[in-house]
Input
Amino acid sequence: MTTKPIFGSGTIKIGTTASPTEQFECVISSFVVSANPSSITIPATNCEAESNAATGSSFSVSWDFAQDRGATPSLSELLLAQDGNLLYWSFDPDDTTVGTFTGQCYAVAGDIGGPGQGLWVSTGQLPCPEAPVYTPPV
Output
């Protein structure tokens, strides 16, 4: 079986509706959807010691992006205005053999400021209420 590397360039849309139209790939330098392991603690009983059991993963979007206040559209302004609210995202890779990923995440306002003479970059992690949806290529 031959495996093929996946390169991350593509179209990234983020918005307040289930079919976001605002594209932000030009300010995003890293976009990662991470699965985070989860477990529960099973309390001890008179017969068994306390133990842990795996549960379904939780997910989050992690990204780095150039602060873009004043741009139209502005990812920095969208995150600040929607802080704590549900956003929708889609990632459509340029590689048409990969498929499309869509999901939801809760907005977290990005960083404000940065180095005096450098590019201001925000790094953030946005929690997702559920797993992303993968749509294979047609």
